[in-house]
Amino acid sequence: MRTLQLTLGEAIEICKALSNEHRMTILDILTRGPMNVNDLSELMELPFSTAATNIKKLEEAGLISTELVPGRGMQKVSSKKYDRIVINLRKEEQIDDNIITIDMPIGEFADCEVEPTCGLVSDSSFLGMMDEPRSFYEPERKEAQLIWFRSGYIEYRFPNRIPYGGKEDRLEIMAELCSEAPYHKLDWPSDITVWVNGIEIGTWTSPSDFGGERGFLTPKWWLTENTQYGLLKTWTINRHGSFIDGVKQSEVTLNELSIQAKPYISIKFGVKKNAVNAGGINLFGHRFGNYEQGIMMKLHYSHKE
User: Fold this and answer.
1) What CATH class does 3-86 carry?
2) Which has the least CB within 10 A, 179, 213, 289, 300?
3) Does the keyword rRNA processing apply (predicted)?
4) Which of these, 189, 192, 187, lies nearest to 212 by C-alpha position?
5) Nearest-CA neighbor of 88 among 8, 208, 147, 159?
6) What is the dihedral of CA 244, 248, 251, 252, to 10 degrees?
């Protein structure tokens, strides 16, 4: 899937180009494949000049490309350039050289202990057997784009790249996830907990196992009555405590995590057997759900004086 990502400033001209019913229809038609102006004007029952003007607007905005191809003489054929547009509504962060960012594929877990229902799929097929924890140890697990289990945990070990002489200031963990129910269920809460280096950071109660409407990245072979997408959540640990999406969860600080004591940083996602809402977990990878990422870790650090 081709995605155009924009800041608020960059989105102005794109929004102007899209604020027209004819242009939206042109993009919808071009989803089927490249087409020339004559064909577009006939399909839309518009004068040739009107269709050509709207195509030019979309081309100027960078949403379509037009090229000359041989046909009955030479003809202009237009193609859609993107399948999805994402506008970042957050203020752009200043570039900071002291951030270590690692995007871990969800299949690259180092350890797990899961109970059915459970399973793994790639972007094209099931991996191993359904509801069989032994499948989580097969070599092809690294291809996973969606992982689910009812209770237990899955652990990722991120390389510790903080330089010698550096001191950690903030750790952020971002993942797309949701509850796990048979097929999907919108009213299905689950208490999903994150641990860092074996220390519990905070628990988020997912409201649903989202399905019925296809995720932006979810492959077409995966049935819509199954889980489709999750919510992007952020766990943050700094010198003042631990937070989920900016809301304080506990008094656990960075100092307690002993970041520099090991060559890796352990991050676990799980559902406790005794959780109040033991509704399972789904984890989404780069080619499943709504967000093109795996398990994202950002480690902010400063240099010791």
Assistant:
1) mainly alpha
2) 213
3) no
4) 187
5) 8
6) 20
